[in-house]
Amino acid sequence: MKATLASLFAVALFVVVPFAQEKTPTPDAVLSDLRAGNARFVSKQFKRPHQTAERQHELATGQNPEASILTCADSRVPPEIIFDQGLGDLFDVRVAGNVARDPEIASLEYATEHLHCPVIVVMGHQKCGAVSAAAEAGTPPGHLSSLVDAIKPAIDAAAKLPGDKIANAVRINVQNVVKQLREAKPILSEATAAGHLKIVGAVYSLDTGKVDWLPDAAAAQKTSAK
Ligand SMILES: [Zn+2]
Fold first, then answer.
1. CB 102 within 8 A of CB 50
2. With b meaning 16 or more CB within 10 Å and e meaning fewer, what string describes 194-215?
3. What ranges make up the beta strands (E) of the chain?
4. Is the pLDDT reported for residue 136 higher than 60?
5. Does residue 101 contact residue 150 with C-beta atoms inside 8 Å?
6. pTM score, two decimals?
């Protein structure tokens, strides 16, 4: 696994070099840009930045995305549209249920270490099919069990809370993954401790288009248990 990852990084480094001349924005500046982009999406007042031929050609020599987004593969949750961003702006890692196993963590490590991405957003969404599948009894078909196993701790925690079980599980799953990434040694944990990286959780509403930014897990658990 290590050798494979190392080769992946070596190849990726060779092919995709970040723009050394561009200054890395602070995590807070990036989050504020994402909030503004989502507000434009909600009101449908799009800017649609960075979607010109010029931008496309400029990116052929490297990339300098401002945020990594770990979100669901669900077709209704495309980060560039939800945050009104363009080419080269977001480093997307998409997998059903926005879980973080080795390939997802490795991708986020690459964005953090080599592209100097200062923010990781872990974004779940309303009525997530992967979370619903994990909540169902019995053995899921095909390869679904690998996702279900990763989401199961959130299902178990949500079972103890009042309110909508799936909505609670979606939120807790995000909080679990945020915690998992913050503790992922050595790259993500060290970048977080040094203040170079902020890892935040969010839940996207299919109804309103709004991204609800989550407080830290400990505080949120207390609030939802009221
Ligand atoms: Zn989903």
1. no
2. eeebbbbbbbbeeeebebeebe
3. 67-71, 90-94, 119-125, 198-204, 211-213
4. yes
5. yes
6. 0.87
> How remote is the CA of residue 201 from the centroid of ligand 1, in Å?
15
SS3 31: helix
* Interval between CA 203 and ligand 1 midpoint (Å): 11
Ligand 1 mean position, distance from CA 207 (Å)? 14
What is the whole-number distance in angstroms between the Cα of residue 72 and the centre of ligand 1? 5
Q: ∠38-67-113 over CA atoms, to 5°? A: 175
Sign of CA dihedral 206, 204, 75, 66: positive
What's the average model confidence in pLDDT over 152-159? 97
How far is Cα 217 from Cα 172, in angstroms, rounded to an integer?
8
In this structure, the number of other CB atoms found within 10 A of the CB of residue 105 comes to: 19
Peptide bond into 186 cis (omega under 30): yes
CB 84 within 8 Å of CB 38: yes
**Phi and psi (nearest 5°) for 55?**
-60, -45
Q: Are 198 and 31 in contact (CB under 8 A)?
A: yes
pLDDT the model gives residue 7: 53
Q: Which domains does the chain have, with CATH numbers?
A: 65-224 (3.40.1050.10)
What integer pLDDT is reported at residue 137 of this predicted model? 84
